[in-house]
Design goal:
The structure holds 2 protein chains of 2 kinds.
Chain A: E1 14-16, H1 23-37, E2 40-44, E3 53-59, E4 62-68, E5 74-78, E6 93-95, E7 99-100, E8 107-108, E9 114-116, E10 144-148, E11 151-155, H2 163-178, E12 183-193, H3 197-203, H4 207-213, H5 215-219, E13 229-233, E14 240-245, H6 251-258, E15 286-293, E16 297-302, E17 305-313, E18 319-328, H7 333-342, H8 354-366, E19 375-377, H9 396-409
Antiparallel strand pairs in A: 1-19, 2-11, 3-4, 3-6, 4-5, 7-8, 8-9, 10-11, 12-18, 13-14, 14-15, 15-16, 16-17, 17-18
Chain B: H1 4-22, H2 26-30, E1 33-43, H3 44-49, E2 56-58, H4 61-73, E3 80-94, E4 99-112, E5 117-132, E6 135-145, E7 149-151
Parallel strand pairs in B: 1-6
Antiparallel strand pairs in B: 1-2, 3-4, 4-5, 5-6
Classes of the chains: A alpha+beta, B alpha+beta.
C-alpha cells in the first residue's frame, strides 16, 4: 500500500488528525522510521558497565537486546530467536555469558551469533537437521551500534549517515553538556500513556504549552514563558532543544505577559522551597535544557534533575515512557539527595510533568473520529519557514518533526518545507 | 505483647487513611502524618535493583502539604475517584514504646468520569507508626508499587 496524505499546507502548520489513529500508517512508521534510516536511543553505557551485562528494550515495537561483549564492545540485536521467533532474553537486565531461548534451547553468544542447537545431529543418528544447515546463517539480527558520550544508539540501516552526523552539532552540544562527567544511574520511572506516540514527540517540541498546561511552573515561579530562552533545531529540524535561563525575568514581566491568566505567585509559596533550588553546574546559567531526538528519546535538565526519556510505541493507541535518572559519579550525598528531591518535578507523578499524559490522552481520545480533512493547527511562532526561535512561546519544532517524518514516510507535499 | 487497644488504633488509622483518599479529603489525610514525616512512593523495580529513585518523595510534612496545595491549585490531572482496599495489616516490630513498624497490602481501583473502573495500582505499605499517647500517626510511609509501569499518570496519593 502506498500512503496518500493530503496536506493542507506544505509548511506542516496543518496536520490531519487521522495520522494519529491509522493502523496502516503505524505499520509504515515501524518500517520506514524505527527500522529505517534513523538512529534510536537504546540505553546508557552506565547501565551495562561490566562484560556480560545486558539490557532489553524496544525500538518502535521491535524487541532489542543490548550486550557488552568480552572485549568490552557493545552489541545490539533483535531479541527474537531465529528458530521460532520467541524472545531469547526474557529479563529486563542482568549479566550472562550466553543467551539461551527457553523454547528449544537455541543459544547465542553476546554478539548474537547462533552457537548451539540441541539435537542438531539428532539422537544416535536419528532426527536432527540436514547437513546443509549452517548456524552462521541463523544468528540474531544485528543492529548498527554507536555510542556518543556514554549513550548507546542503534540503527537498522547500514547505509544511513553516521551517528554524529545524524545528531548534528546542536544535539552533540546538548548531550556533551549533560554528559560532561561520568554518570551514575539513580533509577527508573515508567508509565503507559494511552495516546499515539507522535503526540508525545510533539509535546516535547511545544514550548507554547509548557507554562500554560504545567501551572506549577508558573504558580511557583520555576519556569515562565517570560524567561529568556528559546528553541533550537538541528539543520534538518528533526531534533530540538528548548532552553531557558535562570532568573531572567520577574513577577511583573510575567503578570503582564500572561494577561487574563492569573499568576498565583504572590499568594502561593512552597512551604518547603528546597524542591526548586537551582545549583548551577555548567558554565552557562541555563536552568532548563530539554532536547528531543528523533524518533524516540529526550535528554533533560531542569534545575538539577537529569534524565533520559525513552518512547516505546505500543500500537497506534498507546506508548510506554521510560525515565532513566542519573547524577554524576562525583556527586556527594547532599547533591544526590538534592537530585532525588527534584525528581518530584518529573515522571508520571511529577509536579511539572503529570499533565502531559492527561493532555495527550484527551487529545487522542477526542480526535479519534475526525474526518480525513480535519486538521490540528500548528502556527504559534508563525507559519512558513521552519527555523530556530530566540523566544519561548512557539511550537515551530513540531513542524520540524513533521517535515522529517513526512520525508522518511515518503509523503511530503509538493514544495515541502524542510 | 502488643496491647489490643493499640492494634485497634492501628486498624482505625489505616481505615481513615483509605477513607480520606477515597473521599477526596486530602487535607484531612495530611492530619494522619506527624510533622517530621517521610512519605514516598517507590516503583518496585527500583527496590529490586537497589536504586533510590521514587515516584513521589516528601521528606517532611511541609513537602506533603505543598503536594496537596499543588494538586488543588496548580496541577491538571485525570478526573477520577479512588477506592483503596487495604488488607493484611501486620505489626512487624515494636521499635520502642511509641513506634511500631507496620506493613499492609493495598489495591487501588480508579473510576473515570464515564464510570469505567480499573485496577490502577497495587502493592505494599511499609510504615512506621508513631503513638502520641494513644493516637497513632504515620512517622514514615513507603508505598511500594508492585505494578511499577504506572497506568496513565500519578496524581493523587496512594
Amino acid at each position: 500500500m502506498s500512503l496518500n496524505v493530503e496536506w493542507q499546507r506544505r509548511d506542516y502548520s496543518r496536520v490531519p488528525y487521522w495520522l494519529y489513529h491509522d493502523t496502516d500508517l503505524y505499520n509504515h512508521e515501524q518500517k520506514l522510521i524505527f527500522r529505517g534510516t534513523t538512529w534510536s536511543y537504546l540505553c546508557l553505557e552506565a547501565e551495562i558497565p561490566e562484560v556480560g551485562d545486558f539490557k532489553t528494550t524496544w525500538v518502535g515495537d521491535t524487541p532489542i537486546l543490548i550486550n557488552r561483549n568480552k572485549d568490552g564492545k557493545i552489541h545490539a540485536v533483535v531479541n527474537r530467536c531465529a528458530h521460532r521467533g520467541a524472545a531469547v532474553c526474557r529479563h529486563a537486565q542482568g549479566n550472562t555469558k550466553v543467551h539461551t531461548c527457553i523454547y528449544h534451547r537455541w543459544s547465542y553468544d553476546l554478539t548474537g551469533n547462533l552457537i548451539g542447537i540441541p539435537f542438531q545431529r539428532g539422537i544416535q543418528g536419528m532426527g536432527g537437521m540436514d547437513d546443509d544447515f549452517d548456524k552462521a546463517d541463523h544468528g540474531l539480527r544485528k543492529l548498527r551500534v554507536a555510542c556518543y558520550q556514554g549513550i548507546i544508539f542503534g540503527s537498522f540501516s547500514e547505509d544511513s549517515e553516521d551517528l554524529e552526523d545524524y545528531l548534528g552539532p546542536m544535539m552533540q552540544g546538548h548531550i556533551t553538556r549533560l554528559f560532561c562527567k561520568p554518570i551514575k544511574i539513580l533509577g527508573y520511572q515508567r508509565q503507559r500513556i494511552h495516546g499515539n506516540w507522535k503526540l508525545y514527540l510533539e509535546n516535547l517540541r511545544d514550548t507554547y504549552h509548557a507554562s500554560l498546561l504545567h501551572e506549577f511552573l508558573v504558580t511557583f515561579g520555576l519556569d515562565r514563558a517570560t524567561q529568556k530562552g528559546g528553541v533550537e533545531m538541528d539543520e534538518r529540524h528533526r531534533h530540538n532543544l528548548t532552553y531557558a535561563h535562570a532568573s531572567s525575568d520577574n513577577d511583573s514581566d510575567a503578570k503582564e505577559a500572561y494577561g487574563g491568566h492569573e499568576i498565583n505567585s504572590d499568594k502561593l509559596k512552597l512551604l518547603d522551597p528546597s524542591l526548586l533550588e537551582f545549583r548551577q553546574e555548567y558554565t552557562d546559567d541555563r536552568n532548563l535544557a530539554i532536547s528531543t531526538m528523533f524518533p524516540n528519546a529526550s535528554f533533560q535538565q531542569l534545575n538539577n534533575s537529569l534524565a533520559t526519556r525513552q518512547i516505546q510505541p505500543k500500537g497506534v493507541n498507546a506508548f510506554d515512557l521510560i525515565w532513566t535518572y542519573f547524577g554524576y559519579t562525583d556527586d556527594d550525598t547532599d547533591m544526590t539527595n538534592h537530585r532525588l528531591r527534584q525528581l518530584n518535578l518529573f515522571g508520571p507523578g511529577g509536579l511539572v510533568s503529570m499533565e502531559d499524559a492527561e493532555a495527550i490522552e484527551i487529545a487522542h481520545k477526542a480526535s479519534f473520529s475526525e474526518e480525513r480533512d480535519s486538521s490540528t493547527v500548528i502556527e504559534v511562532g508563525g507559519k512558513g519557514e521552519i527555523s530556530d526561535r530566540a523566544y519561548r512561546v512557539n511550537d515551530v519544532p513540531i513542524r520540524g518533526f513533521w517535515s522529517y517524518y513526512a520525508e522518511l514516510m515518503g509523503i511530503e507535499p509538493d514544495g515541502a518545507f524542510r | 505483647m502488643i496491647e489490643v487497644e493499640k492494634r485497634f488504633a492501628i486498624e482505625d488509622l489505616y481505615s481513615a487513611y483509605g477513607s480520606c483518599l477515597d473521599n477526596d479529603k486530602l487535607e484531612e489525610w495530611l492530619d494522619l502524618f506527624v510533622e517530621k514525616c517521610v512519605y514516598k512512593i517507590t516503583p518496585k523495580q527500583n527496590v529490586t535493583l537497589g536504586l533510590p529513585v521514587t515516584l513521589m518523595l516528601c521528606e517532611n510534612k511541609n513537602m506533603l502539604r505543598d503536594r496537596i496545595v499543588s494538586l488543588r491549585q496548580a496541577n491538571e490531572y485525570s478526573i477520577h475517584t479512588d477506592k483503596h482496599l487495604i488488607s493484611n495489616v501486620c505489626i512487624k516490630a515494636e521499635v520502642d514504646a511509641n513506634i511500631m513498624m507496620v506493613e499492609a497490602n493495598y489495591a487501588l481501583f480508579q473510576t473515570d468520569n464515564e464510570g469505567n473502573g480499573s485496577l490502577y495500582s497495587f502493592g505494599t505499605y511499609i510504615d512506621e507508626v508513631f503513638f502520641n499517647k494513644n493516637v497513632p500517626k504515620f512517622l514514615s510511609k513507603t508505598v511500594i508499587v508492585e505494578n511499577w509501569s504506572i497506568p496513565h499518570m500519578l496524581s493523587t496519593p496512594i
